[in-house]
Design a protein that fits this description.
It is a single chain. The protein has helices at residues 5-10, 37-50, 60-79, 94-109, 128-137, 154-160, 183-192, 212-215, 240-245, 280-296, 298-317, 344-353, 366-372, 388-405; strands at 18-19, 22-23, 25-26, 88-91, 115-119, 140-144, 165-171, 196-200, 219-223, 234-238, 256-259, 264-266, 322-324, 334-339, 356-357, 359-361, 377-381. β1 and β2 (22-23) form a beta hairpin. Helices cover 41% and strands 17% of the residues. The radius of gyration is 22 Å and the shape is globular. The chain starts with a helix and ends with a helix. The strands form five sheets. It has a seven-stranded mixed sheet with strand order 4-10-9-8-7-5-6, with helices on both faces. α3 (60-79) packs across α10 and α4 (94-109) runs parallel beside α5. By secondary structure, it is of the alpha/beta class. The chain folds into two domains: 5-30 and 298-405, Aspartate Aminotransferase, domain 1; 40-294, Type I PLP-dependent aspartate aminotransferase-like (Major domain) (Aspartate Aminotransferase, domain 2).
Length: 406
């Protein structure tokens, strides 16, 4: 469709309200995106018309719910260009997906003497599960360094790779910096030494297209709520051969074919990794959110979001006392910064009184804060429904905060 900002904003009912008497300026999209009316309506329709458990029922409600649930699996397969719906595993979100891989794949493939590589800019969700796996297995965790701009040191990365490398866990787009990493090159280099690659796509999936097959990705993980969908649901997309060789992550209903007290026969993919009653409404809502993204198209999304980031960056560069954190050449949607004399938490509170919602803190990326020697940053993050006027409101509020602490 043609990018019509007014109509897109009209799709998001939450945006049309006041906070402390000021129009809401929502710039916390890296934490969670707002939901279009079509997603809200889809959730309501499920609970009003189709609420039933899936896969097990032969009655009409169950059949309708199952049909919509599995239709989302195919929507995701197409969206990410996966080879089969068998490669699409529904989870509780990015964190759950990474833990699934670290537990099921990691326990079967990583042992003492092996190495796992992650980068300095990872979210805690792509650090802690690998630390835990290394503690269990005796493997070693190694870190790909980054430079002051917030770009990975690819020369050091190449030198860290070896026959001991079992897995590379890398964020596609940094939540704290906005950096978009060159995953195509990094995946090819990892595969050259026989390593598998997990890409954390939580920040990227709503902003840039992903082709699982063209990029030859082993594991890709993301969350619906970063993609205009519901919270509490996400996806692991992985190569079928890898998933078939992995043991189940959890035991329970729906991930089995036959259970006796002596032995259990596990279900086929993708159900082997989906134990218990899932977030049925969330998955169906996720499908509606992806279709919403597709209706706009990545070409229009990328163009619009680059315009917003360029506009905000220009104002930031001219703003006295503001230091940007993360200035990579290839970045998107995120403006992280510190303001002289004002703690980011105070800044967040002051801006809230002006109706401007940003994020202040370590953004679940403490090693990034340690690298830049700051306790926290303020982060404004943009989406398709944001406007230049809202960016102006952000900097007007920042001016008030600066003057207040002068």
């Amino acid at each position: 469709m043609t990018f019509d900002l007014a109509s897109i904003r009209a799709d998001f009912p939450i945006l049309h309200q006041e906070i402390y008497g000021k129009p809401l300026v929502y710039l916390d999209n890296a934490a969670t995106t707002q939901k279009p009316q079509i997603v809200i309506d889809t959730l309501r329709h499920y609970y009003e018309k189709d609420n039933a458990n899936i896969h097990r029922g032969v009655h009409t409600l169950s059949e309708r719910a199952t049909k919509d649930y599995e239709a989302t699996r195919d929507t995701i397969r197409s969206f990410f260009h996966a080879a089969s719906t068998k490669e699409v595993i529904f989870t509780r979100g990015t964190t759950d997906s990474i833990n699934l891989v670290a537990s099921a794949w990691g326990s079967a493939n990583v042992q003492a003497g092996d190495e796992i590589l992650i980068s300095h800019m990872e979210h805690h969700s792509n650090i802690v599960p690998w630390q835990m796996l290394c503690e269990r297995s005796g493997a070693t965790l190694k870190v790909i360094p980054m430079n002051e701009a917030g770009e990975l040191d690819l020369e050091t990365y190449a030198n860290l790779l070896s026959e001991r490398t079992k897995l590379v866990g890398i964020v596609h787009m940094s939540n704290a910096l906005g950096t978009i990493n060159p995953i195509a090159t990094m995946i090819a280099q990892a595969h050259a030494v026989g390593a598998k690659v997990l890409i954390d796509g939580a920040q990227a999936a709503a902003h840039v297209p992903v082709d699982m097959q063209a990029l030859d990705i082993d594991f890709y993980v993301t969350s619906a709520h970063k993609m205009y969908g519901p919270t509490g649901v996400g996806v692991l997309i992985a190569k079928q051969a890898i998933l078939e060789a992995m043991p189940p992550y959890q035991g329970g209903g729906d991930m089995i074919l036959m259970v006796t007290f002596e032995k259990t026969q596990y279900n086929d993919l993708p159900h082997k990794f989906e134990a218990g009653t899932p977030n049925i409404a969330g998955v169906i809502g996720f499908g509606a959110a992806i279709k919403y993204i597709q209706s706009i198209g990545f070409e229009a999304i990328e163009k619009r979001e680059k315009e917003l980031l360029a506009y905000a960056t220009k104002l930031a560069q001219a703003f006295t006392g503001l230091r940007q954190i993360g200035t990579a050449k290839d970045k998107a949607c995120v403006l992280s910064f510190v303001l002289d004399g004002v703690h980011p938490h105070d800044l967040g509170t002051i801006l809230d009184r002006e109706g401007v919602a940003i994020r202040a803190g370590h953004h679940c990326a403490m090693p990034v804060m340690q690298f830049y020697k700051v306790p926290a940053t303020a982060r404004a993050s943009f989406s398709i429904y944001n406007t230049e006027a809202e960016v102006d409101a952000l900097f007007a509020a920042l001016t008030k905060a600066r003057d207040m602490f002068a």
